[in-house]
Fold this protein.
Amino acid sequence: MIEEFAELIRSEFMGKSGAAFHSGRLAFSRSRDLYVLGLNPGGDPESHKHLTVEANKKKAFGSERSDWSAYLDES
C-alpha cells in the first residue's frame, strides 16, 4: 500500500523540504487508521532543506527498518 500512496505524490513536491511518510513499510502492511497532515503543518522550511520529500520517500522505502517511526526513532 505504501507504494500506492507514494505514486500519488506530485513530482513538483519531490525537491521541496518536507516528508511524506513518518512511518516505514510495516505501518502500511495492513488496514490501519491514516492521519494526514497538510502542507508544512509546522516548522520553518528553510531550516529543514536537508530533508526533501524525495529523500524521505527513499528512506521510508528501504534505507530504514520496516518498522521505523519518525516519532519513536528520531528526535
User: Anything to note?
Assistant: The radius of gyration is 12 Å.
